[in-house]
Structures are given as C-alpha cells and as structure tokens.
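About this split. The held-out portion is used to measure sequence recovery: a designer receives only the structure tokens and must propose an amino acid at every position. Recovery is the fraction of positions where the proposal matches the reference. Here is one held-out target exactly as it appears in the evaluation file.
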C-alpha cells in the first residue's frame, strides 16, 4: 500500500500513477473541503481536474488513516512546508515505511536537502524522485522518464519499479545527494530563463542560461558531496531544459512576470496557490554560495533580482561583466 502526502498537482498525479498499477493508495490533503470534493467527484478540481481517480485511490484528510500500515510514503508538499508536515505525520508511520521525497528544494538557512529534513523529523529512510516531470503531461500519459535515488541499489530498484508505467519510466540511481541538488537548483536557472522570456529575449539567451545552469549544478553537486556526473542526466539537464522552456513551468512563469514588472503579490495570485520553488531555492543556494565561497554567478544575479529589486537588465550587465 502507498500513501501520498500532499494533493497538489504532482502529489495527485503520483497517487494516480501508483493506483493505476493496482496499488491501494491513500492521498492526504490538509483541506477537508477539498478531500470531500475529491471523494465525491473522483478528481482534484484545483490542480489536475481532468485526471479521473482509479478506484483504488482514496483521498483523506486524516493523517492516521492515510498512513495506516503503508509500506511506501510519497512526500509531495512544498519545500518550505516539508519539515512541519513531516513532523506532523512522523508518529503515524508504519515501522518499516520508506519515504520517497517528490519535493525539490533546499531548506533555509540550513542548506539541507529534503531527504535530510524528512529523515530528521521521521527517523525513516528517504529516497528522492526527480526528473523532467510536469504533472500536466504525466497525468495524461505523455511519455517521460525520471530517476529515483536511494543509497541502496535494491531499494532504489524496488521503488522505481513501483512507479514505472509504459509511459513513465523511472530509473534507479544511488546518488541521492546529486539527484536532489539538481532537482532543487534547476528552478533557479528556470527563473532566469523566465526573466529572459519576459524581456523578449530568444533561444540563444535561454541556451546560455541552461549551459551556465548546468555548470553551476556541477559546482554545487561537487561541493556538497554528490557525483558531478549526475547534472548531465535526467535529474540535471533533463529537468532543467523542461523547467526552463515549458509553458507548464511555474518558475519560468514567475521569472517572466517579474521581468515584466508585475508585483510579486500579483504573480502569486496569478499562480492560484501553486508554488514557484525557485524563489526559495535561490535564497538557499545564494546563502550556500556565500558560506562555501562558491562563485555561482547566475544564482547571485537571480538573487539580486528576486530579493533586492535589481532590474533584469542590470543583472545581465553584471553577469556579462564577470570574468
């Protein structure tokens, strides 16, 4: 049995993927009204309204009920709510439960990866799922791939098999550190790509941003103890290209609107409750760059735009002036 914590677009989609393979799945959402609607109508009206739930997918607002006896728990809540949420459900976990983090981000100011945060709060082993996986496409069966990382090969393979379908191929990996860092960092570069789009700049600029983003991924992964080859795979280049170029990308949207001069509170309202993880990731990676004396020029420019109101044009001038 599988439990999914968090009924946003990605959590709901992953719950449907697992249920579609015959697993009994409980999908937990914090809002009882949303759960009541999902129970009655068999879909999630706010995030993936066109995805009809398999019969084995049961929404619930009760954590104890949602986690009763489940062997696998998929954690799919925003990064800024991860520690609090993990603390809430820790006491309800089955003794042998393994947690799969589907959340991409770093905690501030600790610079801890989501698997570290969840493990601290629950005491359970944690794997990570990441890749070029827009829920809008996965939910309707468009083909893509992902990686699922766990230090133990057998565990990684077993969890990857649990979620693999004919259109959603999940590859087992061991580099938990690198996989998580790539999944978190790509949102920073996606903000920059969105800013370029907002000013009407074209493919050349976005290609440069993606390339610089991969370079910074490698620097961060190496500095934090991951495998520097990981950024060149699905967790790195794959996810970065999708997030930097897709119409579905919340981070690209946020960066684009910011570059157009739209106030941040209005951008958030336009996103209808969805989260641009790059905003939090930018702060975390900037702080890490300061602490670890890493250059990360793209990260520093994005941070200056998002947190200090520097214009995108001035940020680009700063970036191009660096040796």
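Reference sequence for scoring:
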């Amino acid at each position: 049995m599988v439990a999914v914590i968090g009924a946003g677009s990605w959590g709901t989609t992953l719950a449907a993927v697992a249920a579609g393979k015959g697993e009994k799945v409980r999908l937990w959402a914090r809002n009882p009204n949303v759960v009541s609607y999902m129970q009655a109508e068999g879909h999630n009206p706010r995030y993936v309204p066109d995805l009809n739930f398999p019969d084995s997918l049961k929404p619930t607002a009760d954590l104890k009920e949602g986690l009763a006896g489940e062997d696998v728990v998929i954690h799919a809540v925003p990064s800024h709510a991860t520690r609090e949420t993990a603390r809430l459900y820790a006491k309800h976990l089955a003794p042998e439960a393994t947690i799969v983090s589907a959340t991409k981000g770093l905690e501030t100011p600790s610079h801890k990866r989501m698997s570290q945060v969840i493990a601290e709060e629950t005491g359970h082993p944690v794997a990570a799922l990441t890749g070029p996986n827009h829920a809008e496409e996965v939910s309707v069966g468009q083909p893509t791939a992902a990686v699922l990382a766990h230090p133990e090969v057998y565990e990684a393979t077993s969890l990857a098999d649990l979620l693999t379908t004919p259109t959603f191929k999940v590859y087992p990996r061991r580099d938990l550190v690198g996989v998580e860092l790539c999944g978190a960092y790509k949102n920073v570069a996606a903000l920059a790509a969105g800013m370029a789009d907002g000013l009407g700049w074209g493919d050349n600029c976005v290609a440069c941003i993606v390339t610089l983003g991969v370079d910074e991924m490698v620097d961060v992964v190496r500095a934090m103890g991951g495998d520097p080859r990981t950024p060149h795979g699905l967790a790195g280049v794959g996810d970065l290209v999708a997030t930097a170029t897709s119409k579905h990308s919340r981070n690209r949207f946020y960066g684009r609107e910011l570059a157009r001069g739209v106030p941040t509170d209005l951008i958030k309202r336009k996103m209808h409750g969805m989260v641009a993880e790059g905003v939090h990731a930018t702060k975390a990676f900037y702080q890490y760059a300061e602490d670890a004396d890493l250059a990360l020029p793209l990260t520093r420019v994005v941070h200056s735009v998002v947190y200090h109101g520097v214009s995108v044009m001035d940020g680009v001038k700063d970036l191009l002036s660096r040796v």
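Annotator remark: The chain has 15 helices and eight strands.
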